[in-house]
Amino acid sequence: MTHRVLIVGLGMAGMASAIALKQKGWTPIIVEKSAERRTGGYFLGLHAAGKDAAEKLGILDKIHGRTPTQSQNWDILDDGSRIRVGGFADQVTQPTVLLRGDIEAGLWKGVEDQIEVRFGTRPTSIENVSDGVIVKLKHEVDGQVTESEEKFDLVVGADGLRSSVREMVFGPHEYFMHSLGAMICAYQLKDEITNFPQHDGIMICEENRALWVFPLADHTPTALFTYRTDDIDAQFKDDPVATLRKVFAGMDQMNIISEALGDLEQSKDYLFDSVHTVKMKKWSKGRVVLVGDAAWCLTLYSGMGATAGIKGGYELACALEKNDDIEAALKDWEKGMRPFINKQRLLVRLKSQFFVPSNPVASMLRRIVLRVGGRKLFNKNKAA
Ligand SMILES: Cc1cc2nc3c(=O)[nH]c(=O)nc-3n(C[C@H](O)[C@H](O)[C@H](O)COP(=O)(O)OP(=O)(O)OC[C@H]3O[C@@H](n4cnc5c(N)ncnc54)[C@H](O)[C@@H]3O)c2cc1C
């Protein structure tokens, strides 16, 4: 009889874990609280370690990349002039640029019709017992609620930043979630920003507030507002557009902020949230293990959350294949994965200064680095 594993969450970490565990002979069952699979989402960069894991999962060629080839990136100055700078896709690591939904659609090709997925379903209690995990599940569709209890050999909590598995098994959110004192709003623009071609990127950054417009090859650009604040709770009192209008008042060179907020007003699919990292001493307890943002959320500033989630899911299955003792395998997996996560974590605060500088020195250094990057690119293009 094969081992049964319950995977909570149909995001990247959950799907990667499910595909990999199926490859290794397990029987995965995914539960997803939403009634259907989400699509769309914001701009992402997928890095080498994520692509490598996706290849091993057999889905790399199913992920639609959107890295723009003729892109130019502009830093908009206070007086409305612009300077060419290096952009997100110009990093030496050359990430593939795409939408969150592109990665999830690729992973879905390895899940659909091959792995059982129960939508509208969430765990309500999780109990480690000597030879498995007993889980109570609540299934809710069109107001009809059914409840069941099942036993699994392993539970994988891949249910994101505010993981309910973590809360039920490891402790309350405040033990593990650490605020970076920042907010984000990410969404797809309806059209390119006036006076900028679709494949051009735009940054307007001041101390503590910034707007990034990320270009994509065959799609309208996406917008990312991000700002720093000491009062996170206050940011949720009004609707996001009104809040952003207040925070970004007096910063509207070339009407870019107004135009982006105009699109947000009409958008139904946006993410407005506070930025938190997740830090845990252990990612597993008994036969319950956390993967992805639930375990280590690195935040958008790291640009490595998707990569880490896919890599983590793949490597978890490899560790379980190598060791029949499930709890020992979870420890082996964590030992192998920790150095990668710790390395990314070290860079989060530094990288956040590129997205939204917190002081005048950081602001100046950021501009210098981006301009040098832009000049190098310009010279490279001239030479080519
Ligand atoms: C604006 C932005 C930009 C980013 N840019 C990058 C980037 O450039 N590169 C990069 O690598 N990463 C980036 N990231 C991070 C990356 O998107 C995340 O790290 C990654 O998507 C996390 O995947 P996950 O599967 O761990 O969690 P999630 O994507 O949060 O998925 C969790 C899933 O679990 C489901 N769920 C939640 N609770 C329950 C429950 N109780 N029961 C059942 N199901 C549940 C949810 O509905 C969801 O489907 C960015 C993030 C943001 C917000």
Describe what this molecule looks like in 3D:
InterPro entries: FAD-bd, FAD/NAD-bd_sf, FAD_aromatic-hydroxylase. GO terms for molecular function: FAD binding. 35% of the residues lie in helices and 29% in strands. It has 384 residues and is of the alpha/beta class. The chain folds into two domains: 4-62 and 101-177 and 277-351, FAD/NAD(P)-binding domain; 73-99 and 180-276 and 357-383, 2-Layer Sandwich (D-Amino Acid Oxidase, Chain A, domain 2), CATH 3.30.9. A seven-stranded mixed sheet has the order 5-4-13-14-15-12-16. Strands 7-2-1-11-18-17 form a six-stranded mixed sheet. The chain starts with a strand and ends with a helix. The model has no long low-confidence stretch (mean pLDDT 94). Residues 8-14, 31-34, 42, 44-45, 100, 122, 158-160, 164, 184, 186, 224, 271, 292-293, 300, 303-307, 309 line the site of flavin-adenine dinucleotide. Residues 8-14, 31-34, 42, 44-45, 100, 122, 158-160, 164, 184, 186, 224, 271, 292-293, 300, 303-307, 309 line the site of flavin-adenine dinucleotide (FAD).
